């Protein structure tokens, strides 16, 4: 049975002689994996539509008793390469791909996740990269049901909105100064307020204010830590983001690998 859906390419990796396995997030069918036959041989057949984070109109065939769908064609809707590329931007795109790939189960329709990814892709330009990364991380954490309450101490329920809170990789939720664990990280009140705005506003509304690697860096650390704790693994691309944020550098370096090892 053949289906067509809007989709975003997450990753590809080679299989057999000339085929590629493609992981992609569809609007209507959730995350899928499929075989693109002869994609390595015939570049013409799929053109540039298999690049990570390419938005496509995907036509694919479900095969009984097969885990992988057969990809007939991907019609290109928007390529990430239409915008200037840099190491920083490619790292951000790798991060989106890795988080979606690791977090969402296959074949579980999740239209909100699709819309979130499409929205942050539109804003993934050099001057708004850290907004896109922060917005995406916080929303993904919430969509997965992994976002703890941000307004109160998880132990005593004291309000944290005006004073900020503390977080620790080994503990869920935020804590007040009294209940924080040793070597906790601080999440300042300003970042907590920004988190509330992110959860209320479309990303376009937040794009008006300037964003740097320092803007809400504590909030980003907190939500990425929450994602990694629930996934029970470190995210490779998040490590690259951390290095990028501390070096403040967006110089061209070797891009993060986008295929599975
Ligand atoms: Zn407390």
Describe what you observe in this structure.
With 261 residues, the chain is an alpha+beta fold. The chain contains eight helices and seven strands; from the N terminus they run E-E-E-H-E-E-H-H-H-E-E-H-H-H-H. It has a five-stranded mixed barrel with strand order 1-2-3-5-4. Helix 2 packs antiparallel against helix 8 and helix 4 (129-143) crosses helix 7. Mean pLDDT is 91; it is low at 250-261. The site of zinc ion (ZN) has 8 residues, from loops. Residues 153, 155-156, 158, 175-176, 178-179 line the site of zinc ion (ZN).
Q: Ligands in the structure? A: zinc ion
CATH class of the largest domain, please?
A: Mainly Alpha
Derived structural class: alpha+beta
Q: Which fold name fills CATH's third level, the topology of the largest domain?
A: de novo design (two linked rop proteins)
Strand-residue fraction?
15-25%
Give me the CATH superfamily of the largest domain: Recombination protein O, C-terminal domain
Number of strands: 7
Number of helices: 8
* CATH architectural category of the largest domain: Up-down Bundle
Mean pLDDT: 91
The amount of helix comes to 25-40%
Shape: elongated
Amino-to-carboxy terminus distance: 31 Å
Order of helices and strands: EEEHEEHHHEEHHHH
Contiguous runs where pLDDT drops below 50 for at least 5 residues: 250-261
Oligomeric form: single chain
Order of the strands making up the biggest sheet: 1-2-3-5-4
